Amino acid sequence: MEITESQIKSIVGAVMAKMQLGEDTGNMHGIFSDMNEAIEQAKRAQKQVRVLSMDQREKIISIIRRKIKENAETLARMGVEETGMGNVGDKILKHMLVAEKTPGTEDIRTEAWSGDRGLTLVEMGPFGVIGAITPCTNPSETVLCNTMGMLAGGNTVVFNPHPQAIRTSMFAINLLNEASLEAGGPDNIAVTVQQPTLKTSEIMMKHKDIPLIVATGGPGVVTAVLSSGKRGIGAGAGNPPALVDETADIAKAAADIVNGCTFDNNLPCIAEKEVVAVDSICDELMRDMVQEQGCYLASKEVQDKLVHTVMDEKGRLNRKCVGRSAKALLAMVGIEVPDNIRCITFEGPKEHPLIATELMMPILGVVRAKNFEDAVEQAVWLEHGNRHSAHIHSKNVDRITYYAREMDTAILVKNGPSYAALGFGGEGFPTFTIASRTGEGLTSAATFTKRRRCTMSDSLCIR
């Protein structure tokens, strides 16, 4: 029987209300009141996980995939309801992407050498219990994607989710443990605490049984992880520029850029945050963005109002604006627009605060460049050395190559929307932990393993 829209809203409302009151969390799997207890339970579970065969791990992951699909709309609605960020339709797509394309045990491989002096194996083994810090921008997506990869590698995971998204994160963690139990695996493959704080995060990062910490968030949390004395995988900030030169298909570039920028109201860290366009096609590009792609052309007065609304005098973002729609942002400054307006655009210098700052909102400033070389120079400046993501629209292979080398980012999308990098309209696998700062790039199951060499001297080579 199909579940109706009103039934889904009723389910989400009931779940959120119960979790708001603290009901049922005691019956949820993987939820604890004390961080030390959570870590201890994850440690016990890991002793069982590490001896599971790959087939057994894959069985759990297969059930996780099914449960994500079954709960995609509920998870999406919970995320929007709790955080106020993003939109339900795009969050459903993100959950389906996680379910269908996140790598599992196939990402765990063994290398072997054999020769006159015997046989050597290099195997990918678990770290053990991994500590993970997750954001409010993708609360359930990050939890689900991370756990699938970590479990495939033989690990369990302790989450310290963002407090603004704890109910959504707890729902996802419970789902993961239900999948493990259904497959005959252990409980507590993923755990968290009812009230995550800076203190619980500190306990997790300093705990002797946590050898690896994975942080997905802003520069502050990544810096804290890298200062912990533990091995850290850090997915930090980005400010991805999209460069458009005169050889590009301008109409397609406009559509791709706006589609990427507005996906889930610009919450993905890989999303286009600003455009750098060469002078000869800049007007045409902006015209297409406004006339064909639902962009609102902001006057200087509206730009100034937006600056004072979306950030404070120190340049810190107003959290009430992050992940909101273009229509909602414009309403905050007294501008009413129709529903088809999905992005705010304007032309300005690269130093403009709405251009130079990673906003995570569908505000897309356009910087005019004298020529391609000037465009690259401005794009490099705008990316701020995060080495995270960048995009280019060009039909000149030499220029694309030059841009890629100059940007030196973990992700580079050529002639497509930013989300193509995550396997959505492009080849490859998704991840919601893009470790640009620590160099791992797009993380997967293999990222959460350590290489161990096992050598048999003068034996087991039979050729």
Automatic annotation (TrEMBL):
Keywords: NAD, Oxidoreductase. Residues 33-426 form the Aldehyde dehydrogenase domain. The keyword NAD applies. CDD domains: ALDH_EutE. Coiled coil: none annotated. The keyword Cell membrane does not apply. It comes from the Bacteria. Pfam families: Aldedh. GO terms for molecular function: acetaldehyde dehydrogenase (acetylating) activity. PANTHER family: ALDEHYDE DEHYDROGENASE-RELATED. This is Aldehyde dehydrogenase EutE. It comes from Agathobacter ruminis.
